[in-house]
């Protein structure tokens, strides 16, 4: 009687994989965080730069409830002749100086010489601002506002904002690449598993 030797094939067990629901939730959260940062950069940096507008940050409660402290207000250039009662403008406290205030125009005044000035007032203030505002002080008219984003605008310098734009864009690209590579790897594993299952199992003769 002859004995036929049987060689046992040891299969290499694949490494434990993260459950699909967990990977899905993680991917959604990561994309939400990245897209949130990207959206903030777009509305706070990219859009104003492309449109020639300027972002400012509300620091006090004078414009509550519409624009509370921390609100990012983006102002676009405006012709003084287009400023009417109700327009929200950002103006220099003193002509030529960097300190600015964002208040609403409550009156448009014209003196005997035809010179125009504006009376402004914070929405939360009980009285108008003491000094009238001349056209040379106006830095822009409110275009749009984003709550809380002003805090981030204050933390970052111009160079840091630009760097952050590049970092977020790079992160999106790397994440997309990793998803593509992961998809290819999963396909190869699936194909390899199917090929192994098709092989004939050894048996005793």
How is this fold's topology laid out?
Elements: H1 20-51, E1 54-57, E2 72-76, E3 88-92, E4 100-110, E5 116-121, E6 138-146, H2 149-155, H3 158-198
Antiparallel strand pairs: 1-2, 2-6, 3-4, 3-6, 4-5
Helix pairs in contact: 1-3
Structure description:
The structure is a single chain. The chain is of the alpha+beta class and 205 residues long. It has a domain at 53-157: Ribbon (Umud Fragment, subunit A), CATH 2.10.109.10. The protein has three helices and six strands; from the N terminus they run H-E-E-E-E-E-E-H-H. The protein has helices at 20-51, 149-155, 158-198, and strands spanning 54-57, 72-76, 88-92, 100-110, 116-121, 138-146. Strand 4 and strand 5 form a beta hairpin. The relative contact order is 0.15.
| Uncertain stretches of 5 or more adjacent residues | 1-9
Average the pLDDT over all residues and give the rounded result.
81
Assigned CATH superfamily of the domain at 53-157: Umud Fragment, subunit A
Radius of gyration: 31 Å
Elements, N to C (H/E): HEEEEEEHH
Helix fraction by DSSP (H/I, runs of at least 4): 25-40%
User: Structural class of the helix and strand makeup?
Assistant: alpha+beta
Whole-Å distance between the termini?
A: 12 Å
State the CATH topology of the domain at 53-157.
Answer: Umud Fragment, subunit A
General form: elongated
Number of separate strands: 6
CATH architecture of the domain at 53-157: Ribbon
Estimate what percentage of residues fall within beta strands: 15-25%
CATH class of the domain at 53-157: Mainly Beta
Main sheet attributes: strand count, strand direction, barrel closure? 6 strands, antiparallel
Strand order across the biggest sheet? 1-2-6-3-4-5
Our count of helices gives: 3
């Amino acid at each position: 009687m002859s004995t036929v030797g049987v060689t046992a094939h040891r299969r290499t067990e694949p490494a434990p994989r993260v459950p699909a629901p967990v990977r899905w939730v993680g991917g959604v959260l990561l994309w939400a965080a990245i897209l949130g940062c990207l959206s903030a950069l777009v509305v706070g940096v990219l859009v104003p730069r492309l449109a020639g507008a300027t972002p400012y940050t509300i620091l006090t409660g004078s414009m509550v409830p519409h624009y509370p402290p921390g609100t990012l207000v983006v102002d676009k250039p405006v012709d003084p002749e287009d400023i009417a009662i109700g327009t929200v403008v950002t103006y220099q406290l003193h002509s030529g100086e960097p300190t600015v205030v964002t208040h609403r125009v409550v009156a448009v005044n014209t003196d005997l010489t035809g010179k125009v000035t504006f009376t402004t007032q914070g929405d939360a203030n009980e009285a108008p601002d003491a000094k009238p505002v001349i056209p040379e002080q106006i830095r822009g008219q409110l275009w749009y506002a984003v709550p809380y984003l002003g805090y981030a605008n204050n933390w970052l310098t111009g160079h840091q904002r630009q760097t952050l734009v590049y970092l977020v864009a790079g992160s999106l690209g790397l994440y997309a690449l990793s998803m593509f590579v992961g998809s290819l790897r999963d396909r190869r594993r699936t194909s390899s598993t199917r090929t192994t299952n098709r092989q004939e199992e050894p048996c005793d003769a």
